[in-house]
Amino acid sequence: MKTTIVNFESSSFRDPCHYARVARHLAELRTAGGSKIIAVVSAMSGMTDKRKAAMLGVNGETSPSNLDAALTTGEMLTKSSAQKSSAT
Length: 88
What we know:
This protein is of the alpha+beta class. The chain has helices spanning 16-32, 47-58, 64-87, and strands at 2-8, 35-41.
């Protein structure tokens, strides 16, 4: 089976109407069939910088692994919101 990889950058998630557009695009790809779809999702615009500033504001010596773990939550939240939009 063919695999289609679709990457959505932060500009794809500026506001709720953008989430719906991403969800529609994924639904169209799924409806077209013929391939497995992998969606790569970046955090909403500005989220990574805000989370990094917050973490370093609390502890300026945060370990790189803890900082990485905190920053990935932005991608997880965006993905979760996109999945919710596609389900409605």
